[in-house]
Amino acid sequence: MQTAQLTWHVRRNAVAYLALLPMAAIVVFAYLGTMAWSIRLSFSSSRLLPRNDFVGFAQYTELFGTSRWLTSLENFAFIAVFFLAICFVLGTLLAIFIDQNVRAEGLFRTAFLYPYAMSMVVTGLMWQWILNPDLGIERTMRDMGFSGFVLDWVVNSNTVLYAVVLATVWHGAGLVMALLLAGLRGIDTDLWKATRIDGIPAWRVYAFIILPILRPMIVTSLVLLSISIVKMYDLIVAMTNGGPGNASEVPAKFIMDNLFERANIGLATAASTTMLVTVLLIIAPVLYSQYLGKKGSSA
Predict the structure, then answer these.
(1) ∠ Cα 127 171 207 (to 5°)
(2) pLDDT mean by block of 10 residues, the chain; 299 residues
(3) How confident is the model at residue 179, as a pLDDT?
(4) What pTM, to 2 d.p., does this model score?
(5) CATH of domain 67-298
(6) ∠93-99-105 over CA atoms, to 5°?
């Protein structure tokens, strides 16, 4: 009986399955295939051209003995922690603000979300100009007579990461706002009425009732922002080019530099494989608990 139902289902949806074949082929061969090939190259001695030899973990040993790579990991952790935390808090506050039926809601919503529509290159160039001592705010303030004003974040190795965090938060907070606002608009009004009758403070309602309800939107926003941080390359190149020195170096730039400028395919693929494993170790438990875990418990 089950075989007959399966056969009927396949025949009924045969056209749909055929339409999906090109996309499935792209995913399997172009995406998963190149990923597997990159992992294989990380265990070879490939330099300018790929080699089919096997050198074990030699590339990984060299990778974690490279100070530039270790610096990029430290910078990545710093940017990721501050970026995700500030984006979530700021995006949540913006969503709550707009959800109060404020005047010119459409204008506020567009203004807050507009930075996310801009490319990372444009964002990096814009903030590079704003924070450049010779072009931006510092130059403007000095021309106005404030000769002692200093805002040299992009050229100061001690503050350049704060400048990067500022630019990324400006770019990504609108995404969190949009996702959480959509979730807030789906909250039943009877819930708000009940909390008002019970006299529960608004901050407790948001912290212990509303945010748990919005958990799927929160997870989605954090995953999207995490992916943007992992592949952050264009913003860094446009804004600081990894400088001053290696003060704003990130893993994506390290990988691209070794792949195209330093002609070290083995080291670049080892770095990319390390980042892939790191992302999977972080995201996989979150996705499992959010989606697969619920299915298992409901069953």
Answers:
(1) 135
(2) 62 74 80 87 90 91 93 94 94 91 85 90 92 87 86 90 94 92 86 83 86 87 86 90 90 92 91 88 71 55
(3) 92
(4) 0.85
(5) 1.10.3720.10
(6) 105
Residues contacting residue 269 through CB under 8 Å, at least 6 positions apart: 38, 39, 41, 42, 46, 59, 259
* One-letter amino acid of 134: D
Look up tokens 């700021």; give the residue.
90
Long-range CB contacts (within 8 A, 24+) of 152-158 = 154/127, 154/128, 154/239, 154/240, 155/244, 156/244, 157/244, 157/245, 157/247, 158/247
**How is residue 230 written in tokens?**
């992992």
Going from N- to C-terminal start, the domains of the chain cover 67-298
